[in-house]
Specification:
The chain is of the alpha+beta class and 510 residues long. It contains 7 helices and 29 strands.
């Protein structure tokens, strides 16, 4: 009996090692397209590419549960408060294809792999140090101590929220991602306004856990019904006009998801496809804005069928999600979302980064064309853990006040490294702040309103009207240029929704 227990334990350990460290490189279907293939790569999608990661989740036994794709996403905060938040599919962290219990151990250190991609169209251009480990290759034999990946990040994850309806999961990476990983934060669209042009939609993903691929999406269709479209339209107006009542921390749009089918359908891909391991990957427009996360489908290189993406806008109004991504309750962000972002300058830098972060500075042209990496701080840069700048790498440190190089900093022959103090001092670069008014102005031209319902829910003619004062404590005035028969006001209370029909000749106090 003792021997059986030992054997089971060993088998479990070997299963864990085989999934965590086995080399998935080259396993994707032959029709898959590398993200840096110049014949298919859109330069405008570079930030969506750099925001896309491979995730290996661990279960409560320490074994690898699955590999999925995730997207590092932007938040409506300044650079110093941005943090690291991942969007993926709910079924990646649950049993029974997303309908069972959570079977990911959030006390474990999970594996988030950045920049796992070829620098061009050829798989063979992927450096051996960034292909993952083979079955018979130990970590020591990898030559770098990088576990077979040049940008492997180990961290605990915090579950912000997950939703079966729409196959949605938002996670926080608790150990900060090192600055030299050169990450980007994808934008997102939280509403039904401003759908993307069809010719620029792509999916970016890690099929079968392989290097990063890109797939062309010709168009997508909604399963939404006219009632839900009307619901989103009306509740959006309510949130804009009366959201100040509840501090904009909640949204009336949450009631609409129960009228909606929260998925987009993609009929086929113009190039590439998706496979197991692509789950949770994003669907992006030309601004690197995410619209959906891959949920389910059966496509392969030899068989095409409809693929389904969970619609981001359906779950965004949930308070836990909305208040994480838009913590200061910017109304313009609730309407039009955020574009993508990179952090180009920090206040201070302590390198290589968070606890347990490796200090391996590989050439950036191992994963894309540009090789030079500039790490910039307004004030101070210091290295506190060993850092190795490998042959072929090109790194530059720029600070406004001081740069301190600590013990263990090594620059190999054939590498370039420069460090200098900017003559501009701490005024090197000011952090770009998001101006809510400018966001509003920038996005007005992008509005594409959904079609009106055939049902007489709206007055389908142009109206000029004013509502004042706003906010109001007792009396609200509505000035309308057109002749109308009545006005219906909707009062949202804890007990439900009340409608009040108002004759145009009378005054009513709220």
């Amino acid at each position: 009996m003792v021997m059986k227990k030992i054997i089971i334990s060993v088998i479990g350990f070997l299963l864990s090692i085989s999934l965590l460290y086995c080399q998935r490189f080259g396993l994707a279907g032959s029709c898959q397209i590398n993200v840096n293939n110049s014949n298919y790569h859109y330069s405008s999608h570079s930030e969506a590419i750099d925001a896309t990661v491979k995730i290996v989740f661990l279960d409560k036994y320490g074994s690898a549960k699955s590999w999925c794709t995730g997207t590092l996403i932007n938040r409506a905060v300044g650079d110093r408060d941005l943090g690291f938040y991942l969007l993926t599919a709910n079924h990646c962290i649950r049993e029974n294809n997303g309908f069972g219990n959570i079977d990911v151990d959030f006390n474990a250190y999970h594996y988030i792999i950045f920049n796992y991609q070829s620098p061009d169209a050829l798989n063979e251009s992927t450096k051996s140090s960034n292909r993952g480990l083979t079955y018979n290759q130990s970590i020591a034999k990898s030559g770098t101590g990088s576990d077979g990946y040049e940008y492997l990040h180990k961290s605990k994850l915090r579950l912000v929220d997950s939703k079966k309806w729409g196959d949605f999961a938002l996670l926080e990476i608790l150990t900060p991602v090192p600055p030299h990983f050169n990450v980007a934060y994808a934008g997102w669209n939280p509403s039904k306004f401003g759908y993307p042009p069809t010719e620029t939609i792509v999916g970016i993903h890690h099929p079968r856990g392989d290097i990063k691929k890109i797939s062309g999406i010709p168009y997508y269709t909604e399963f939404a019904n006219p009632v839900s479209s009307s619901c989103y339209f009306v509740t959006t107006i309510i949130d804009v006009l009366f959201g100040w009542i509840w501090g904009r921390t909640t949204s009336t749009k949450t009631v609409c998801k129960w009228l909606d089918i929260p998925y987009f359908s993609v009929p086929y891909y113009t190039f590439g496809t998706v496979e197991k391991g692509s789950s949770g990957s994003g669907m992006f427009d030309f601004r690197n804005n995410l619209y959906g996360m891959l949920s389910f489908g059966l496509s392969s290189c030899s068989f095409y069928t409809n693929e389904t993406y969970g619609a981001f806008y359906v779950n965004y109004p949930n308070s836990s999600i909305k208040n994480t991504l838009n913590p200061y309750h910017n109304n313009a962000v609730d309407l039009w979302g955020l574009d993508s972002r990179r952090i180009t300058i920090y206040d201070n830098l302590i390198l290589p980064g968070g606890d347990g972060t490796n200090g391996y500075y590989f050439p950036a042209n191992h994963y894309h064309a540009e090789n030079k990496i500039v790490l910039k701080a307004r004030y101070d840069i210091q290295t506190k853990e060993p850092i190795t700048v490998f042959e072929g790498a090109d790194y530059e440190f720029v600070a406004g006040n001081s740069i301190t190089i600590g013990p263990g900093f090594t620059v190999q022959p054939g590498a370039n490294f420069r460090a200098y103090i900017s003559p501009q001092g701490p005024k090197l670069v000011k952090e770009k702040q998001s101006d809510p008014n400018q966001i509003l102005i920038d996005q007005l031209e992008k509005i594409v309103l959904p079609p009106f319902s055939n049902k007489p829910l709206y007055i389908q003619q142009k109206m000029n009207f004013k509502v004042y004062p706003n906010p109001a404590n007792d009396i609200i005035n509505i000035q309308i240029s057109n002749d109308i028969e009545s006005i219906e006001m909707i009062e949202i209370c804890e007990s439900g929704v009340k409608k009040l029909k108002i004759n145009k000749f009378k005054q009513y106090c709220l």
